[in-house]
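Hi all, posting the design record for the shared folder.

TITLE: backbone redesign
STEP: 1 of 1
STRUCTURE INPUT:
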């Protein structure tokens, strides 16, 4: 494709984003950063973990998003007695009415959809949580020696309550690493809360329009992948991720003291992919260092583990990432000069 074609495609991504946000505004008040990060994840083909207390409209946001994008949507309420087959599907013994022959037939589970809402994902045991691993990474489900491909596009948007500990099962690191973003859903401002009260308690039923379809989303995802990245941006993303690892010789001293584990290579990949999507959504055909910096918190906060010393001092993962951003040089001219 020519540069003019790429510019036109990037403009289309911006138009699609604006149309989706316009529809979401019929049901969702505020949550600007959350919606922005969800849009980035969708065009970067990523899954999201939404962390927030109950009642912040996380479920409504996801269902409204599916409706505006004309995507097949399913919701799973994760509970302690949920089984893996309740997610992926199960083999049922059926009898052929003509031959009377009995054979097993795979009955697809709710994971066979475009947009899957895993509600309160930390309320089910690790065995059931792991049922999503293959689907999220490989985009398929294996049963009885047969692979069943999932429909595309496929996204998992999971919600998690950060304050309840009893009856919950923390997500294993392997599961967390498959989420592109860990998005913190915060309380609304006073003005937003008043708007919520006025809109939700009225008798008006907002009707959402379908502004884009699955085929268009897939096409625009390919456009995002084609956005070029300069070497100094790759270098900056790699420097940030490698600096989170306490065993790295060049890691800052505070990282060696306050981090037990750092982020793996998937963090570097996700920073670049999300940076491409962020650039496209802002009408640019190149990724900047600023894109990488803006995405460090949602990409890294669930991939680093603060040490006991950090927790005893009240240091959170977000605070450590902010400190890291101050530590690693980010001047684009300086980075480009270092590359020669």
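Okay, here is what came back for every position:
SEQUENCE:
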């Amino acid at each position: 494709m020519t540069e003019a074609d790429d510019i036109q495609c990037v403009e289309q991504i911006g138009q699609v984003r604006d149309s989706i946000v316009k529809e979401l505004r019929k049901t969702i008040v505020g949550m600007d950063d959350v919606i922005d990060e969800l849009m980035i994840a969708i065009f970067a083909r990523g899954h999201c973990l939404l962390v927030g207390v109950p009642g912040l409209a996380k479920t409504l946001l996801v269902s409204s998003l599916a409706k505006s994008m004309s995507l097949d949507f399913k919701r799973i309420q994760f509970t302690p007695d949920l089984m893996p087959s309740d997610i992926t599907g199960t083999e049922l013994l059926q009898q052929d009415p003509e031959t009377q022959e009995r054979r097993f037939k795979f009955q697809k589970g709710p994971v066979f959809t475009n947009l899957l809402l895993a509600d309160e994902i930390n309320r089910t045991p690790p065995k059931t949580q792991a049922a999503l691993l293959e689907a999220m990474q490989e985009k398929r489900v294996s049963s009885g020696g047969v692979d069943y491909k999932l429909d595309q596009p496929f996204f998992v948007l999971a919600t998690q309550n950060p304050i309840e500990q009893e009856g919950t099962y923390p997500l294993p690191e392997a599961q967390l690493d498959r989420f592109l973003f860990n998005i913190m859903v915060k309380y609304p401002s006073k003005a937003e809360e008043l708007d919520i009260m006025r809109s939700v308690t009225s008798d008006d039923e907002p009707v959402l329009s379908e502004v884009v379809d699955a085929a268009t989303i897939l096409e625009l995802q390919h456009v995002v992948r084609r956005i070029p990245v300069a070497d100094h941006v790759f270098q900056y993303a790699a420097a940030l991720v490698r600096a989170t690892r306490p065993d790295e010789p060049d890691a800052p001293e505070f990282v060696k003291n306050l981090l037990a584990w750092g982020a793996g290579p998937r963090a570097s990949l996700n920073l670049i992919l999300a940076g491409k999507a962020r650039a496209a959504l802002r009408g640019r055909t190149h990724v900047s260092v600023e894109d990488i910096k803006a995405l460090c918190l949602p990409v890294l906060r669930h991939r680093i583990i603060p040490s006991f010393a950090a927790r005893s001092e009240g240091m959170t993962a977000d605070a450590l990432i902010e400190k890291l951003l101050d530590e690693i040089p980010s001047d684009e001219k300086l980075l480009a000069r270092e590359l020669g």
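COMMENT: The domain at 3-217 is CATH 3.40.50.300 (Rossmann fold).
Let me know if anyone wants the other runs.
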